[in-house]
Write a structure and sequence with these properties.
It is built from 4 helices and no strands. It has about 160 residues and is mainly alpha-helical. The protein has one domain. The chain starts with a helix and ends in a 6-residue tail after the last helix. The mean pLDDT is about 80.
């Protein structure tokens, strides 16, 4: 929900900036080619600043996320059996079961780390792709404005 809100705000900001540029370009008495170039630089700077801020927020959210360990039922069952064997005085069997529990936990932890790394990679890739598409959309808008300004009656 927060991501959608941020994306909506970014879209509205870009639309407002585009309208401001379009209005300024239409009024060529107060806005010439130099003014358009300044506005384009300003738009690109604002996009870069916003994307930099979003990247920092993304990185801090990733660091702040805590994953609680959830052992699969097989591991929990083995832990319970090892505990029961120890309480029955069958220490050798309990130690063997505990060794199996530790191996299963290590394997599960390794699997979880790999899954988290893959998920973070996907999230990072999606985030970077969204930022690239925003920059490409801004470039397309700028090209449209430049094409509009190149018409003889505007500049």
């Amino acid at each position: 929900a927060l991501a959608l809100q941020q994306q909506s705000e970014a879209h509205n900001l870009q639309r407002g900036m585009h309208q401001q540029v379009h209005d300024s370009v239409s009024d060529d008495s107060k806005f010439g080619r130099d003014g358009l170039d300044n506005m384009i630089r300003q738009l690109k700077t604002q996009l870069a600043e916003r994307q930099s801020m979003e990247l920092q927020q993304f990185a801090s959210r990733v660091v702040a996320e805590k994953y609680s360990v959830k052992w699969p039922p097989q591991v929990l069952d083995m832990m319970w059996r090892a505990d029961c064997l120890g309480k029955q005085g069958r220490y050798k069997e309990a130690r063997e079961m505990q060794r199996k529990v530790e191996e299963a936990k290590a394997a599960e932890e390794n699997r979880r780390r790999q899954a988290e790394a893959a998920q973070m990679s996907r999230r990072r890739r999606n985030f970077e792709e969204r930022q690239r598409s925003e920059a490409a959309a801004l470039d397309m808008r700028i090209q449209g404005l430049l094409a509009e300004c190149s018409r003889p009656n505007l500049l």
